[in-house]
Sequence to fold (329 residues):
Amino acid sequence: MSEQPNPKDYYADTAYKPAKRVAWDEANPGRQRKNGYCLGWQRRTQDNGTKEEYGYNNISISLTWEARRAETGGINDDVFNNMKVRYDQQSIMPPNFKTIANIIFTMMAIGKGGMFLSIFVLAVSFVLISIMAIFNGRIKDSFLAIIGMAELTLPIALILLLLWKGCELLTKKHPTVLGARKGPLWQLNRQNGFFTIYNPKRAWEERLVAPIYEFDAYLEISPDTQGSPTYSLMLFHPETGLRQKLDAQFPPTNMPGELVAAWQFIQRYMDVSQPLPDVPALEIHRHKDPTTAASDKRKGRNPRYWRDMSEAEVEKIQEEKYQKNIRLR
Fold:
């Protein structure tokens, strides 16, 4: 517990508390707005997160990053600048992946979507051919037709399944293969309350550093390849007109509730009057944050709550969270 600092010494005066947003909101009623669905700010932040935030693999990823940090013998920001990624009690700075990562993620999405589509087509064909067989009495011909459809569809579905799961395994077991650009896209800092937007063309050049409470959160909607609505979480700074999508940490999805949960996660993470979100990857850092350490001590929280669980137990909680999130609006 020697790493635990005094709250007055640890948090900057600019650190976020909900009362600051309330005051800013009242002082800026006529601020610039964006088209899209604007998400609200909470006076008491919720302990929530997306399905991915509760992933079991986040435990090992967090331990790996912490081990790399320890190998350098320091905890200053230069360590994270070299790693170009951060996810701890002080800051969230997601990796800015190279083009190869986008290709792999696209292949994963094609594999997953194509596999389910293939199975759906086969199931519908089976039902339709069976109905036709009942009415025309051509059972043998219908059976052969179903076999023919299966011979055509199942190999395609298998290939797409291997593509999906192969890419997914690659990203989990060997995340370094994705590569990262020289600088990040954005950063949330709990300690000082700032949200930083970086210049994507000039590594580490800051385009904007502003208190998180000065941003409005929006869900942006765009069609996917099938024409279905896809949602992205975006922060907009009314005073400067700058906007930043948060896709690097919270990927676009057709489930808007997941991004509402992401917005709840961000607010809770930045709110120093509340403990950190209780998600697997942040567990090894909870004792370093004064508010969180005090809360955990008061509640008697098991410091290894997530790490002592089996993968199946974590996945059960993850799925329960997801089912609640998709109903959020």
Q: What stands out?
A: DSSP finds nine helices and nine strands in the chain. The longest strand covers residues 229-237. The mean pLDDT is 86. Strands lie at 37-39, 86-87, 91-93, 186-189, 194-198, 206-211, 216-223, 229-237, 242-245.
